[in-house]
Design a protein that fits this description.
Layout (H helix, E strand, L loop, with lengths): L12 E3 L6 E3 L8 H15 L8 E4 L7 H9 L3 E4 L9 H13 L9 H17 L27 E6 L4 E6 L3
């Protein structure tokens, strides 16, 4: 919803298939090849200092993934791997993240423009990466090490943390 009425706003998602860490880009009203290249360059810069850097970027066959996009990916030290035509099942994990962010966050709000969508996606992605459990990772979030043994605690030692404006609640041990 904008001052001009209902408009589509687009984001781009990068998903680490091993850890399930998601990186959601800044939104736009008009996605084009130049925007995709900018977001890819930002992604490469954001992940360049990691111990395990992304090596392959899997993408669909959208016309926005041009030769300039492939050059941007290669300049970031990665290779591209375009999926076969009409094969959304091969990109199932990313499609699942998109469904998750829609169901758990975006469908519960009326989004009032780019800034609002960027705020919501940033908040949810932060929650998703640091607090939300993932079955593939033994119920640990993507950015978190396996905890040591935990003893039983009483209810007064538990703190409720709220994310995305109270839409999502998480239960954690109070800091001593």
């Amino acid at each position: 919803m904008t001052a001009r009425g209902l408009r589509d706003i687009y984001v781009m998602v990068f998903l680490n298939l091993q850890t399930r860490e998601a990186i959601v880009t800044e939104s736009t009203y008009r996605p084009n090849s130049a925007w995709v290249c900018r977001q890819t360059k930002k992604f490469a810069e954001q992940t360049c200092d990691r111990e395990k850097r992304p090596a392959i970027l899997i993408h669909d066959r959208d016309t926005k993934y041009t030769k300039k996009f492939r050059e941007t990916v290669e300049a970031g030290g990665m290779k591209t791997n375009p999926l076969p035509k009409a094969s959304p099942n091969l990109n199932g994990r990313c499609e699942r993240f998109i469904e998750t962010i829609k169901l758990e966050c975006l469908n519960k709000f009326i989004v009032f423009g780019k800034k609002h969508l960027d705020y919501l996606t940033d908040e949810f992605t932060s929650y998703y990466n640091t607090n939300r459990s993932h079955m593939e990772r033994d119920h640990l979030p993507p950015i978190r090490e396996e905890p040591g043994e935990v003893e039983t605690i009483s209810i007064d030692q538990i703190e409720v943390k709220k994310y995305v404006g109270g839409l999502i609640k998480s239960f954690e041990r109070k800091v001593a």
